[in-house]
Amino acid sequence: WGLELPALPSSAWAQDAAAPIAEAALGQPQLRDAGIAALACAKAEGTSFVLAVAHTAPKAWTRAELHALGLAASEVAARQRCVQQLADEHEGERSARLKLQRADQLALVGQLAAGLAHELGTPMSVVSGRAKMLAGGSVAADQVLAHARVIAEQADRMAQFVRQLMDFARRREPKKATYDLRVIARQGCALLQPTAHQAGVTLRVQEGAEPVLARVDAAQLGQVLSNLLVNAVQASARGAFVDVEVAREVGTAALRVRDFGRGIAKEHLPRVFEPFFTTKESGVGTGLGLSVTLGIVQDHGGSIDVESELGHGTVFTVRLPEQPSAPRAGGG
Predict the structure, then answer these.
(1) Interior CA angle at 106 toward 103 and 107, to 5°?
(2) What are phi and psi of 49, to 5 degrees?
(3) What is the model's pLDDT at position 132?
(4) Residue whose C-alpha is closest to residue 188's, from 137, 123, 256, 239
(5) Alpha-carbon distance 224 to 232, whole Å?
(6) Among 99, 172, 245, 328, whose CB has the most other CB atoms within 10 angstroms?
(7) Average pLDDT in the 242-264 region?
(8) One-letter-per-residue 3-state SS of 272-314
(9) What average pLDDT is seen over the chain?
(10) pLDDT tens digits, 133-156
(11) Are strands 241-249 and 202-206 parallel, antiparallel or unpaired?
């Protein structure tokens, strides 16, 4: 018995559809007592699917029974098309979300690079000055090794800054594992240190002695933390502090970024996670950061809250489901 259907994904659909067709078929009054033992589907040429029916005793199928079987198969086919359409829409949404995350990531790279360029100035001056002294022969023989060590140390420092930025900018497929959020907090502050230093802001990590575990994509959570830290630094005056707090709460792993800057107006708080909404000056930021941050946190089954008061600072709190097991990655 053949059934003409629109093109469907693969023959795997046929196997998945056999049971629903059987269920739908047995729901038809004409087939309820037909003695159906098994149904199987197989993809044939083009868009034609062949439905094989086995029954418990030899019998001649009536026209009404065949019509009812066709209705059952058509119902399942329509249902499957809806499922496939939803799957396609979900994939499209996921692709768009990843593109937004990438755009936000690249915008962050630009901001971090500006801080990095400023931070590289000091070690580059040290390397250049010491190298010129060595080349000019003005260094005593017993001091050559000491100068060479200083040059090597400063070169390693510059390489570490550049490596951190390159790691952050690299495109990766999302992959979740159990991480200690204390480690992610330290890494995030190390990455933002040049930007904070340029702004005259000090980053502080406040953590307990016990691991705070959550199942996360480390790169995506690092992007969340970077967005929150960049906003906090930009809202802070020179000489101020920005605190990153990691703690275990009831059933959750909490990551909190606290600044003591200008704060957010009450009427703006409900809109801070809207795409392209920003209270910053023109040309500063893209307005995507907090929107992307919200999406990443929700993808991890978590939530993000904001509290703020004008003139007294802002606190963003990310809460993720806590993992009780030992970390497989990102250990202390």
Answers:
(1) 85
(2) -110, 135
(3) 84
(4) 256
(5) 12
(6) 245
(7) 94
(8) CCCCCCCCCCCCCCCCCHHHHHHHHHHHCCCEEEEEEECCCEE
(9) 76
(10) 888 888 788 888 888 888 888 888
(11) parallel
Give ∠ CA 264-267-268 in degrees, rounded to 5: 50
Instruction: Report helix, strand or coil for 316.
Output: strand
Prediction pTM value: 0.56
Which residue type is seen at 230?
A: V
Which pLDDT score, from 0 to 100, does residue 119 have?
Answer: 63
Q: What 3-state class would DSSP assign to 160?
A: helix
CA distance 289 to 106: 11
The position carrying tokens 């029916």 is 53
Distance, CA of 6 to chain centre:
36
CA–CA separation, 200 vs 239, rounded Å?
A: 5
Whole-number Å distance between alpha carbons of 252 and 148: 49
At a CB cut-off of 8 Å and minimum separation 6, what does 16 contact? 80
For residues 214-232, give the mean pLDDT.
91
Task: Please report the pLDDT score of residue 7 as a whole number.
Answer: 37
Give the whole-angstrom CA distance, residue 215 versus residue 208.
Answer: 19
- Both tokens of 52, joined, read 């094989």
Residue 44 pLDDT class (50, 70, 90 cuts): very low
Instruction: Please calculate the CA angle 222-224-229 and round it to the nearest 5 degrees.
Output: 90
Residue by residue, DSSP assigns 187-245 as HHHHHHHHHHHHTT-EEEEE--SS--EEEE-HHHHHHHHHHHHHHHHHTSPTT-EEEEE
**Biggest alpha carbon distance in the chain?**
108
- For the chain, the first-to-last Cα distance in angstroms comes to 63
Q: What does the pLDDT look like over 151-202, one tens digit per residue?
A: 888 888 788 777 767 776 666 677 899 999 999 999 999 888 888 988 999 9
The values of phi and psi at residue 107, to 5°, are -65, -40
